[in-house]
Structures are given as C-alpha cells and as structure tokens.
C-alpha cells in the first residue's frame, strides 16, 4: 500500500505524524511525504483562528504552501491513501481537491474549538461558531479520522465517531535512543553503583516541559515543590506560555527550580533522559481529563519514572507504569515526589516499569496498529460508551 503523508505539518515541533508514518513503514507500507511546513506552532494557529483580523496572514501563508504542495504532489506516484498531518484542518481540504477519489486519513489530534476554549482564547459567541465550522469541515473532508484517546473519539460529533480510529500519541525512535544512551552513560560512569542501594544518592531530578497551557497545570507542579521544603528534589521547568507567571509565582525561591524558556527539539530527548522523573499534566479542565500527553510517552521512552494525573485515559494507557495523582492536587504530587526521593528502590522500579511499557506499547509500530487494521479492512472493535 502506498501512503502519502501530506500537509504543512512540522515534525520537529509536533512529531505525532512522523510517529504514524514510521509505524506504517514498520508494517511494510510504502510511505512518502509531501510536506511544506507552515511555520506556525499550535499557539500561533489557534490564536489566528480566534482573532479574525489575523486570518489574512494565515491565508497568505497557506496560499504559498498550498501552491508548493500541489506542484510537488502532481509529480509523485499516485497514492492509495493520503495521511494529512497534525493541525491539518485546512490541509485536508486541499488534499480532498487534489485527490478526489483517494481515501484520506486526517490526524485530528486537536479540535480547534476545544483548544481555543482550553487556552482561554474563546469561550463562546461567533468565534466558537467559526471554530466549530472549521472542525466540521475538516472532519467532512476526511475518510478516516485519527484521534489519540477514546474520550476524544466520543467527543466527536456522533456521525463521525464510527469512522474514527484511536491511535495513541506514542514516542519517536530517537526518544528511545536517548534513553538507551543515558542509561549506558550512567553505567559507564559508575558500573558498581546500584541506584536502589546507594547510601548517599543525590537529589531527585525532575523535569517538566511544555507550553504552560491550563491543561498542563504547571502552577500545580511548582506549588508541590514549594510544599516539599527542601526534601531533596530538584526541578527543571522547560518552556513558557499562559501559566508561566503563575508557575513562577508559586515556585520556591531556594534555587531548587531551574527555568529554561526553550530547548532545541534535537536536544530535548537527551536532556529529559538525564533526569529521574518526567512529569505529565495536572490540569483539571475538560480537555485535561481526555488526553494522554506526549510527554508521558516520551519520558517513558527516555527511561524516566513518570508522575501524572489520575484520569481515565491515562490510567487506561499507563496502568502501573506511572505514579498517578489526583488532577490539580499539589499536596498529592508533593507526596509522590517525596516518596521517590526517599525510596530509590521504588524509583528504580518505576523507571523500569515505564521503560518496559514504552518498549512494549509506545513505539511507532505498536501505536499505529489500529490504523493498520482500519486501512487493511480489519476494523478494530469500537469500545462501548460508558454508561
């Protein structure tokens, strides 16, 4: 089967579609790419959609990229399936125009209307009407809709749920490589030391990275660290966004938090792999309760122990491979961090559990299996709706 990955996606900042493409390749499919990145991240695209006066700039960019995409696509072999990458709400329409009779798979990882509400850019009115119309048009243009959790499948309009396939976000291969390299470096540095029995371990090193959106709950993290009061935990916070100021205001002032506004995508896996614990999300909004964030898949692949919120999709996906705490509860997060700082045997066990889950379930070949079944005509069973 020949698959053409199509659109203005950027795998350096959003690796999701690259994971799907690698997974399809691992299942023997011939995968090519027709890609001209738009040059806008999620925040930039959503902000434009929520601020109509900025839409002309988006349209100008799209016109340039679409012309280049169309010109390139005409020169490529005719595909059997088109895969439109993440943030493809408009790209899927171009794909439908260019490939009228070809099945189109839309990676609908985010809803424009849902994301605008979560980021407090739009809560109702004409903006939400416009964003919902954009979502609906994108879904209508697709043959198969890919989402990341069952909760997101059920959040689709009822007419679209039956043709939706759940493909977890997963982790790219280079995150696994970073984890293996970090483990080898630690072993080479001191092969005789067992981290579970080391009588004088250093501080527990913890990392969080993201866009500091409400979904992620960054202020919960820094409140938790402040509550630890020097309990041997050092935290690295990477990124910036809406909740940056609130997170910094809640943080302790004893030097236990390191702030990095930005880390190049190519350097991030190795940096994360150098930490003991990778934090997930701790927000309490509706969207936060429906997702399994990319950072838990990536952190597991990097060999870190995981702590994230105890929500239905995360509990189902991670099981015993993560420490789960109630959303929005800094005291519970602080207790979980204190336990891992004091019990290095438990820390080592959680690292091994996360890595084992990643190797078994989070790699490209594993996460893409439901889509492979869909494309081969063996549709996976649709889970029943919870009563």
Question: Brief description of this entry?
Answer:
With 387 residues, this protein is an alpha/beta fold.
Give a verbal description of the structure.
The chain has 2 domains: 2-170 and 364-375, Rossmann fold, CATH 3.40.50; 173-362, Glycogen Phosphorylase B (Rossmann fold, 3-Layer(aba) Sandwich). Helix content is 47%, strand content 14%. The model is unreliable at 381-387 (pLDDT under 50). Helix 9 (173-189) packs across helix 13 (294-301). The strands form 2 sheets. A 6-stranded parallel sheet has the order 2-1-3-4-5-6, with helices on both faces. A 6-stranded parallel sheet has the order 9-8-7-10-11-12, sandwiched between helices. The relative contact order is 0.13. It has helices at residues 16-26, 42-50, 55-74, 91-98, 112-118, 125-141, 150-155, 158-161, 173-189, 218-228, 244-250, 268-273, 294-301, 312-318, 330-342, 344-362, 364-367, 369-375; strands spanning 2-7, 30-35, 81-84, 104-107, 144-147, 164-166, 204-209, 233-238, 257-260, 277-279, 305-309, 323-325. The longest helix is centred in the N-terminal third of the chain and has 20 residues, at 55-74. With 387 residues, it is of the alpha/beta class. It holds the Pfam family Glyco_trans_1_4.
């Amino acid at each position: 089967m020949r698959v053409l990955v199509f659109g203005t996606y950027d795998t350096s900042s959003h690796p999701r579609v690259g994971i799907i493409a690698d997974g399809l390749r691992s299942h023997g499919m011939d995968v090519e790419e027709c890609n001209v990145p738009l040059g806008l991240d999620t925040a930039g695209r959503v902000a434009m959609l929520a601020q109509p006066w900025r839409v002309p700039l988006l349209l100008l960019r799209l016109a340039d990229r679409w012309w280049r995409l169309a010109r390139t696509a005409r020169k490529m072999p005719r595909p059997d399936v088109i895969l439109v990458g993440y943030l493809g709400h408009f790209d899927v329409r171009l794909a439908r125009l260019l490939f009228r009779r070809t099945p189109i798979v839309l990676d609908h990882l985010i809803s424009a209307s849902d994301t605008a509400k979560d980021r407090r850019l739009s809560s109702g009115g004409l903006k939400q009407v416009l964003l919902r119309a954009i979502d609906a048009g994108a879904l209508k243009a697709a043959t198969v809709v890919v989402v990341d959790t069952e909760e997101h499948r059920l959040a689709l309009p009822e007419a679209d749920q039956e043709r939706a396939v759940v493909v977890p976000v997963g982790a790219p291969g280079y995150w696994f490589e970073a984890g293996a390299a970090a483990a080898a470096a630690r072993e080479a540095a001191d092969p005789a030391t067992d981290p579970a029995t080391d009588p004088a371990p250093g501080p527990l090193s913890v990392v969080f990275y993201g866009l500091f959106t409400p979904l992620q709950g960054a202020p919960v993290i820094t409140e938790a660290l402040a509550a630890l009061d020097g309990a041997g935990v050092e935290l690295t916070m990477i990124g910036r966004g809406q909740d940056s100021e609130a997170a910094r205001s809640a943080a302790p002032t004893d030097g236990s938090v390191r702030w990095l506004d930005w880390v190049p995508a190519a350097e991030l896996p190795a940096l994360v792999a150098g930490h003991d614990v990778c934090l997930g999300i701790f927000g309490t909004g509706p969207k936060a309760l429906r997702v399994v964030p990319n950072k838990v898949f990536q952190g597991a692949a990097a060999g870190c122990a995981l702590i994230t919120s105890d929500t239905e999709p995360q509990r189902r996906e991670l099981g015993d491979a993560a420490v789960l705490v109630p959303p929005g509860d800094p005291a519970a997060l602080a207790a979980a961090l204190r336990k891992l700082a004091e019990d290095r045997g438990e820390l080592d066990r959680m690292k091994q559990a996360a890595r084992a889950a990643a190797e078994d379930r989070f790699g490209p070949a594993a996460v893409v299996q439901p889509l492979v079944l869909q494309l081969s005509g063996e549709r996976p069973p649709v889970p029943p709706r919870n009563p």
